[in-house]
Amino acid sequence: PQATFELKLATNLARPSHRRTFDSAIAELQRRLYICMREARYEPFTYVWDLVQARYPERVREARHWRPSDAAAYLVRRYVNAVIYASPNDVSAVVGTTNHAWAALARLEGEGAVATGVPIDGLPGRWIVATT
């Protein structure tokens, strides 16, 4: 585990002019489930980051037995139930690829868990909506 500033130093991204690059890299590593926040420290304020595999070894072990299509459907179901409605781009960002997103949505729509192409009053476009 390393604090944010330690990571910035280790990657030569500690200067204020590098903040955007560092923040983007941390966000990408989180999206790909390589790292996660382990703790927040308050004196001075910082986050401590760790590898997901080190923080949650049992979950990673379980996940290795999942087919990608099952994992994508599980994530999309959890996500849409949490946010109630989402755009196709939102869902793609959650699972990582458009192909996995659309396959998961087709599966979940067939199960009656989501509805796709739903208009929402006051919002442009069509949405994916939780049905449960």
Q: Summarize this, please?
A:
It is built from 7 helices and 6 strands, in the order E-H-H-E-E-H-H-H-E-H-H-E-E.
Could you give the topology of this structure?
Elements: E1 2-3, H1 4-10, H2 19-31, E2 35-42, E3 45-51, H3 52-55, H4 57-63, H5 68-83, E4 85-86, H6 88-95, H7 98-110, E5 114-119, E6 126-130
Antiparallel strand pairs: 1-3, 2-3, 4-6, 5-6
Helix pairs in contact: 5-7, 6-7
Overall description:
The chain is α+β, with helices and mostly antiparallel strands. The protein is 52% helix and 23% strand. The chain has seven helices and six strands. It has helices spanning 4-10, 19-31, 52-55, 57-63, 68-83, 88-95, 98-110; strands at residues 2-3, 35-42, 45-51, 85-86, 114-119, 126-130. The protein has a three-stranded antiparallel β-sheet. Strands 4-6-5 form a three-stranded antiparallel β-sheet. A hairpin with a 6-residue loop joins strand 5 (114-119) and strand 6 (126-130). The longest helix has 16 residues, at 68-83. The chain is globular. The chain starts with a strand and ends with a strand.
Uncertain stretches:
none
* Number of DSSP-assigned strands: 6
Give, in order, the helices and strands.
EHHEEHHHEHHEE
Oligomer: single chain
Quote the average pLDDT.
94
Strand portion: 15-25%
Query: What structural class is derived from the secondary structure elements?
Result: alpha+beta
> Span from first to last CA?
39 Å
Helix content: 40-55%
- How can the largest sheet be summarized? 3 strands, antiparallel
Number of helices: 7
What spatial order of strands do you see in the largest sheet? 1-3-2
What is the radius of gyration?
18 Å
